[in-house]
């Protein structure tokens, strides 16, 4: 019995130091907390977070606005000409590093292709749809009759070649058949290729930068989603490779992503970008950009504009205002009005060209996304109806996939199945 009390007493003695150690550790933990002000650990809150006064009696932190430019661009004070219908403001090129913009660039490890091979590869979908259909119809030394000509006419129209261009082609081919110049369908196929190539020849007029213009102003126009901003970035890189100094103007002020995407292109290529806040007057941005480019004696100024529907008169009038404002500084500007069209829109591209041509006097076309359509015949319809120069064609996502248009190379890549790639 006494042994029991003795063991219990010894147990209590052994537990007491452990409890004392816990109390001591607790006091050491609480001591620094009570000795420091609580508010010193409060970090500045984001601007959009409201700090409740009863929880923290501190003055909200003042967050200074940071403006970061891709490269130092000194914009001269704006001196507006008389009767200017806008109030220019200083150019700002804000960059948000948290916004990741996907700028399509080919992987470095990808095997580089030659000029012809790149176009041929990019037109693979068009060949599989448009060209292979024609080859299947005509090749095989078939007899040329009315049914064959009707089927050919249908396929051309279905491939977006257009009624006007198709009618002209069928008329010319029928005349050659009547003169016994084409003995079978194989000869008809070769004659068709010649007719299509001749139709495109009128549109083969490469863009030439007039070095006497400082800067040479290229105004990019088109509806939403056709690839204007991406085309601008690719053009800027190509002009740089040719030894030209380039400046970009972010005139699409309706979409913050468009401004940021253009600034990413500028950062990557070390090209200055003139921009303002979202919702700013596009004409004001382009006025500032042109004034800055003149002061810096830049070779080429490429101006982006907001995508607009061709059938919205008020939006088209805003585009006309942009042209008027630029002419306050340079009566000859813009020197090139480049309409960007999506090849996949088909005959709607005809309507877009018609309206933009009436509003701002389009001087050249860039046809994008030819690699993504199985039709591709719209380029023939545009050449036949308008005869406008096709400056560039887009046959892929890489910078080198924006190619100067060449009628012979295009038709060879589209129709010649036995041609090897470079």
UniProtKB/TrEMBL annotation:
Q: Which residues cross the membrane?
A: none
Task: Spell out the molecular function terms from Gene Ontology.
Answer: GTP binding; GTPase activity; signal recognition particle binding
**SMART domains for the chain:** AAA, SRP54, SRP54_N
Which reaction(s) does its UniProt entry say it catalyses? GTP + H2O = GDP + phosphate + H(+)
Q: Which top EC class applies here?
A: hydrolase
Under which EC number(s) is this enzyme classified? 3.6.5.4
Task: Tell me if Nucleotidyltransferase is a UniProt keyword of this record.
Answer: no
Q: How does it sit in the membrane?
A: Peripheral membrane protein
Q: Report the GO terms under cellular component.
A: cytoplasm; plasma membrane
Give a GO biological-process term: SRP-dependent cotranslational protein targeting to membrane
| UniProt-annotated location(s) | Cell membrane; Cytoplasm
In the UniProt record, does the keyword Cell membrane occur? yes
Q: Where is the composition biased (Basic residues)?
A: 1-11
By its UniProt entry, which InterPro entries does this protein fall under?
AAA+_ATPase (IPR003593), P-loop_NTPase (IPR027417), Signal_recog_particl_SRP54_hlx (IPR013822), SR_rcpt_FtsY (IPR004390), SRP/SRP_N (IPR036225), SRP54_GTPase_dom (IPR000897), SRP54_N_sf (IPR042101)
Binding-site positions, GTP: 222-229, 304-308, 368-371
User: Where is the stretch described as Disordered?
Assistant: 1-25
Q: What are the UniProt keywords, alphabetically?
A: Cell membrane, Cytoplasm, GTP-binding, Hydrolase, Membrane, Nucleotide-binding, Receptor
Q: Where do the SRP54-type proteins GTP-binding domain residues begin and end?
A: 389-402
Oligomer status and interactors: Part of the signal recognition particle protein translocation system, which is composed of SRP and FtsY. SRP is a ribonucleoprotein composed of Ffh and a 4.5S RNA molecule.
Q: Which family does it belong to?
A: Belongs to the GTP-binding SRP family. FtsY subfamily.
Q: What does this protein do?
A: Involved in targeting and insertion of nascent membrane proteins into the cytoplasmic membrane. Acts as a receptor for the complex formed by the signal recognition particle (SRP) and the ribosome-nascent chain (RNC). Interaction with SRP-RNC leads to the transfer of the RNC complex to the Sec translocase for insertion into the membrane, the hydrolysis of GTP by both Ffh and FtsY, and the dissociation of the SRP-FtsY complex into the individual components.
Q: What is this protein called?
A: Signal recognition particle receptor FtsY
Native source organism of the sequence: Thalassolituus oleivorans MIL-1
At the highest ranks, the source species' classification is:
Bacteria, Pseudomonadati, Pseudomonadota, Gammaproteobacteria, Oceanospirillales
